[in-house]
Amino acid sequence: MITIAISKGRMQDDALALLSKAGVRLSPSSLASRKLALPDETGEYQFIFVKPADVPVYVEHGIADCGIVGRDVLLESEADVLLPLDLGIARCRIVVAALDPKVITRSFGMLRIATKYVRIASEHFGARGIPVEIIPLSGSVELAPALGLADAIVDLVETGQTLKENGLCIVEVIRESTGLLVLNRASYQLKAGEVALLTSSLSCAIEGATAA
Amino acid sequence: MSVFEGWSYEEVLTPSVDYYALFEHGMGQAEAQTAFRFSDSDGQMLSLRPDITSSVARVAATLLAERDRPLRLCYAAPVFRRQQQSHAEWRRENTQLGCELFGVSGEAADLEVLLVAAEILKDIGLADSFCITINDVGIFNGLLKQLNAQSQSHETLRRLIDTRDRGELKNFLDRNCDNEKVRDALYKLTELTGKKETLADARRMISNPDSVAALDRLGRLWEVIESLGLDGSFEIDLADVSSLDYYTGISFKVFIQGLGYRVGRGGRYDGLTANFGRSEPAVGFVLSLDSLVEVVSQSTSVNGKVEPAQSIGATELRETFLSAITERSKKKCIRINANL
Prior knowledge:
The complex is a heterodimer of chains A (212) and B (340).
Chain A: E1 2-7, H1 12-21, H2 28-32, E2 37-39, E3 45-50, H3 55-60, E4 66-70, H4 71-76, E5 82-86, E6 92-98, H5 103-106, E7 111-115, H6 118-128, E8 132-136, H7 143-147, E9 152-157, H8 161-165, E10 169-177, E11 179-183, H9 185-190, H10 192-211
Parallel strand pairs in A: 1-3, 1-4, 7-8, 7-9
Antiparallel strand pairs in A: 2-3, 4-11, 5-11, 6-9, 6-10
Chain B: H1 2-6, E1 10-11, E2 17-19, H2 20-27, H3 29-32, E3 37-39, E4 45-48, H4 53-61, E5 71-80, E6 93-102, H5 107-123, E7 130-136, H6 137-147, H7 151-162, H8 166-176, H9 180-189, E8 193-194, H10 197-205, H11 209-227, E9 234-237, E10 250-256, E11 264-268, E12 282-288, H12 289-298, E13 310-312, H13 317-329, E14 334-336
Parallel strand pairs in B: 1-5, 7-9, 13-14
Antiparallel strand pairs in B: 2-4, 3-4, 5-6, 6-12, 7-10, 8-9, 10-11, 11-12
Helix pairs in contact in B: 2-4, 6-9, 6-11
């Protein structure tokens, strides 16, 4: 049996839709339940629903053989996992945003950056040699510049609506982020057949989705 | 350790505390960073050993330089590393079991250490649940040479192939590699995992002499593995390019059913002993004893054959200990009854 860890929230519906196209389905009754660990209809797969940041943890430790999680989360974690397939779901961008786009180049002192993505932000500015003070927040990051907590933010943007409503504009796009299939290194070898089957049927499902 | 003895390996003991520079030379800077470091009274940087291979290679090149080759050494000792708390292999202290074979190159030596590793795993009752993945880093290095890219992009490529990050790999290759053949071959590496047919697939993609020589080496190795009927426990994985600055030929990793991370690794590192003034071929592996204990203690198939201790206790002290000494001289297992 293969255990699949799914990020709860934003990505969950897209991930389940894609899996069901690939032939891995949850019955409607189990979908309605509030259990966090569920078998699929065939009994060959088991789903576990965990917070996005915990997906790489479950997969790295081999508790889950594979998982579906955003690249933003993977970049932020230090988990050592395989990422063989870009699922193309939940596409969004990781950006630097500020009230005034010139703040990055005009600031003389230390820039203050509020973010949920501490590693991504410090790597991004570190690579450019821009000294920053990172202020870790766990949500509603868009508030920080308006209230004067930070000069700019590093955050995930899907439509840009939240940024706009809080008076922020995008200064720089750091990179795109999409949902990925991640695999445990040991499962990749020890359950090679099952894992390859899931990977190939998912990749067919993606091609079907883009063709349609 | 009895398996090592059976294959004529001699045990060596190396210092727990040593100069940090040793490990920097031995493991490469990136890996040596994981060591716990502190300074000596003269300001020299010391560290708790993060690795034993480096010390053993030094012993082979210095103290045992005059000994006949091949030189077979083995050890079981703790190593110390700083690691991320969340990391699956997280342990500050980890006991490593390993061996090194100096002074012989070629498939015979590679096979010897692979079979020693396999025997150890069988001996502890894991015959059906282990998998050793093998690769030859020459294949990847040969392709890199064709690219003549900068070492920085080597590292990026290595990481992308190692994590099978196909989406990013494709983007990176499209931007940085104009040789179509090499580009396709590098991309294909991420899929080349399996048995014998993997090598045939690779041959179709790869034509440069270095990579082909490496493929030939791996092919000869696989033939023997197959003819010994061991191919069920082995797998070829050409995308395993994790520690390149260390290995120079074959490299392998050990996985066990029931554990989500690797329990051992090894390979050929012909360049290492040159750091200590004597260049010679070498191949070896380490297994994490702590991880093995974890799996073995989970499985019920292993029965420890411990002789029950004989309880000794008489009313008189002299009598008690006289019989204790007599029993011990016969190498019997005893336990002194405390309620005297």
